Amino acid sequence: MKAQQLLLTSIHHFAAHGYEGASLQEIATEVGIKKPSIYAHYKGKDDLFLQATTYALQEQKRRFATYFTNTRQQPLEQSLHGFFDWFISEQQDDILMRFILRAAYFPPEKLEQEMTDRFNPFFDSLHDLLTRLLRERDRTEQILYSTNYKSAALAYLTVAEGTLTELVYNGVDAFHARQQAVWPIVWRGMSKTI
Amino acid sequence: MKAQQLLLTSIHHFAAHGYEGASLQEIATEVGIKKPSIYAHYKGKDDLFLQATTYALQEQKRRFATYFTNTRQQPLEQSLHGFFDWFISEQQDDILMRFILRAAYFPPEKLEQEMTDRFNPFFDSLHDLLTRLLRERDRTEQILYSTNYKSAALAYLTVAEGTLTELVYNGVDAFHARQQAVWPIVWRGMSKTI
DNA sequence: TGTTACCTAACGACCGTTAGGAAGGTGATT
DNA sequence: AATCACCTTCCTAACGGTCGTTAGGTAACA
Questions:
Q1: What pLDDT, on the 0 to 100 scale, is given for residue A93?
Q2: Residue A44, CB-side half-sphere exposure with 13 Å CA sphere
Q3: Given an 8 Å threshold on Cβ–Cβ distance, is A20 in contact with B16?
């Protein structure tokens, strides 16, 4: 179905050129239809962008949740640290992350409210997921320095966002350099091990 | 001089709408001239954007260096931690930072090389500045856990970038929440104090 | 018969850019 | 001292292009 192709291609183009820079002409051509045919599936550029955002957030949330579920039996540090490596290995998906970061940080002005309404629940649910993970895991491992799990989760998310942004922008090498610099410090800061 | 006005107004518009979304028409109107008059000062939109980037990086580097010079006699933690507060108070005009982040993360495709050529030295010089700061200060305070100052500086820069990005995007309140979550962990991770 | 998914053609608006000229100041030449 | 050429800075007018969008039609299919 062309509707789904349009959505995926749009994410690609919006990620690369931004809302203003992406061209419906080019998106249509890549999908193999003419520009006005887009309007058979979406009300317009705004609608396409909003639906792309909704899809991207839902998909990314699903992937993150899957990772942390699948590593449930690993030690906490391995699960948290391995997340970065897992993210790299899903190389193809950094288009999704790039789209999300761009739409989050620099949304088109007129859609700012709609973006906020979508991103806040997304981020909150990630925050909750991580908080629960830290709390449950610490109950058995007793490894975290502080029991303020919510705060620790937020710190982890901040560092993750910073390094993943680096990955999206500067590539794998710069990312590895940062990760190797920042992770020992962060883990030493949040765990009991000294 | 209109040339300088054009530069500053451009930074404002590029920060708000991106390269593709910014309009020479609107920039000219805000400065009080007609659109084609821009060409008396700059060769075109590209030239304007590149000169704006050069100016913004030079200016931001100057401000950062000034802060760390002025806090030279403070304890290291105070100087590093206070940087965030200083950024909020001194940079109520966070437009400069917003422009820099946007131009760094999502440059116009055709200017990607020129952007990289400008941003790498900028980031490297910040990295060097911080590395020297940590080394010199640790010589007297003996407070850092590791003597890999370059790595510690990179970790600090990563966290700073992540939280400052949060400030630019989500505002002061979300920024404070993150800063309070992440700083105790990072400082505990990089210092000897347990 | 009605709906879905595509098409061609074309709309008005805006884009960055160029041509060409007016006004004013500067500096050298007469 | 007066004239001249020249440069800078602005202007109006207009260029070719691309933008998102709409109108209206066609073919397939339920």
A1: 65
A2: 1
A3: no
Which residues on A lie below 8 Å from B155 (Cβ)?
178, 181-182, 185-186
Tell me the HSE value of A97 on the side-chain side, using a 13 A CA sphere: 20
Closest CB from A16, A189, A194 relative to B185: A189
Task: CATH number of the domain at A36, please.
Answer: 1.10.357.10
pLDDT above 70 covers a percentage of chain A that reads 97
Looking at beta carbons, which residues of chain B come within 8 Å of A158?
159, 162-163, 166, 178, 181-182
- Residue A40 contacts strand C, CB under 7 A: yes
Q: Residues B140-147: what's their mean pLDDT?
A: 95
Task: Give residue B133's domain range.
Answer: 2-190
pLDDT (tens digit per residue) in A130-179: 999 999 999 999 999 999 999 999 999 999 988 888 888 888 888 899 99
Domain count, chain B: 1
CB proximity list for A6: less than 8 A, separation 6 or greater:
A27, A31, A38, A41, A42, A48
Instruction: Please state, as a whole number, how many other Cβ atoms lie within 10 Å of the Cβ of residue B90.
Output: 12
Mean per-residue pLDDT, A68-95:
89
